[in-house]
Amino acid sequence: MPKFSPEAIRTIALVGHGAAGKTTLAEALMHQAGAISAMGSVEKGSTVCDSDPLEKTYQHSLNAAAVHFASGDTRIHLIDTPGLPDFIGRAIGALPAVETAAVVISAQNGIEMITSRMMQWAAKRGLCRMIIINKIDAENINLPQLLDRIQATFGKECLPINLPADGGKRVVDCFFTPHGESDFSSVEDAHQSLVDQVVEVDEALMAKYLEQGEIEPEQLHAPFEQALREGHLIPVCFVSARNGAGVAELLDILVRLMPNPTEGNPPQFLKGEAADATTIHAEPDPAKHVLAHVFKVMIDPFVGKIGAFRVHQGTINKDTQLFIGDGRKPFKVSHLYLMQGKDLIETDALVPGDIGAIAKVDDIYFDAVLHDSHDEDHIHLVPLEFPQPMHSLAIEAKRRGDEQRLSDALHKLAAEDPTFRIEHNSAHQTVISGLGDLHMRYILDRMASQYHTEVTTQPPRIPYRETVTAKAEGHYRHKKQSGGAGQFGEVYLRVEPRQRGAGFEFADEVKGGVIPGQFIPAVEKGVRQVLEAGPLAGYPMRDIRVTVYDGKHHAVDSKEVAFVAAGKRAFQDAISKARPIILEPIVNIEVTVPEANMGDVAGDIASKRGQISGTDALAAGTLVVKGQVPLSEIENYQARLKSVTAGQGSFSIELSHYEPVPPNIQKDLVAHHAKTAHEEEQ
Fold first, then answer.
1. pTM for the whole thing?
2. Is the dihedral of CA 362, 365, 371, 373 positive or negative?
3. Which has the least CB within 10 A, 113, 249, 393, 508?
């Protein structure tokens, strides 16, 4: 039988900006709980969570790492997540595995870009949130000002549950034993604010509080959990992972106040597909049938594919028979593991709230739902929203004959990373895309070190798109007679623009059977062939509605191939009359720079057809410049930024929208495409 019930389990993800000290904090909590005999060091590459050789080289977390430890009668599952913008997809992917997102903020650097984003993503997933202010013993910090800024940014519901004392050498509790002196503010006032905030969610308790004037902390547990679930309270803890100040107190808070699986908001499961999907609620009951969610996939060169998952319902034992998603082929759990960084520790059973792993199951994939019912409809979580990969490279194998090895390596890397994309564009390039320059360097390093595959790289074509701006009609008759059976198909169709971002829509308005129903998919197939490479410059087409409304067929000569050809040529005919244009990707850009370089960076963005939307102050002397700029204008921007800021600047981008390119650029793109097409014909 499992040693821990769901009520005795806590699941927490440490999230936040890079260098906030999440990995060191995980070490400190494990050491405090007795799970490790001594704390490891990020600088020495000796931490439990940063086990990847490249993490030790970069001295940053690049993957989400799960660990577990016991504190008294409670098991805590902790996920240490990356904080660099280029690897934020792996942090987002871990959110469905936990009840609580603990947002770690460096007392030195304050609220940073990923801080705000993780607060938003966690709220959107319905997670309980807490804020941990780390490095409270650092020099030249202003903790009262930081707390004020946190409350101004994230709301007055961010209330301290302890406060620093003795210059950051220890902390004093503001909830259970609200007495003592702190470095700033009043412990009693902080306690009063917490109680006032918590009782607001319970009318009966509020009345009792107003009548008696005092409420025991034990009476506040249920409303405290409710306040967490509703986002009505976001506790703020102070800690120094380096000197240990507040670590024991933080561990106590995790055990006594953070929600267990029966107290957090239920995971957002859906049953069925698209518009027919209905919401279902997993119950953290070990006796019910199994529902578990795969939040991470790892490819180990020795063990093979490993799937890390969170159990939401039921109990998984050795020899449990499970299904993956809507698959009908079950597999038997031969080995069941708990995770301790890179180490897999065999266990007998996992219950709701547990985070575990299975190995050597080739069909497992990221975001899959595991269940034990063979007649279950497709159950899946509400899809996670990841940043769009916009930093791309065209690659090819350096050595002839390595093409298959390269393909295998790329697909293994894509299986692990929800923000890594592979595509083959119309220029016959293999294009890999990620969230930034560091992300791409990591992928290339992994290919070389783990998969022994070397590649050459070059900038790919910018992912322009084509569309139409007017309604038009097209027609084509395909007729071919070459002895014996011929080919015949005739198609009339209309095209019209759709709202930007609406995508492609195909409609059938044929009446009277002039085109038999079995040939309509062939017409759509021909249309989609044109969508893949538009007529202006060969870029994919988007935001178009195509309606087939008339045509002709022949009882003997009509075939699928004829209607594919007719649909393709009719669509091309319509596009030529519908004022086609080229669209370019516009990205949101955030540039972190020293305050002294703000003018240079703003001017540089403006010179690239960009617009500045605002600036945010971070730590003293550092700003974030926000704006929008065409993606085509920021090729090699990292080198330019490094030059302008003497190596102190960094940036991140994400897709915002598409808009028409200026006429002169469209003219150049069309001319280049025509020249390339002509050269290929020679």
1. 0.82
2. negative
3. 508
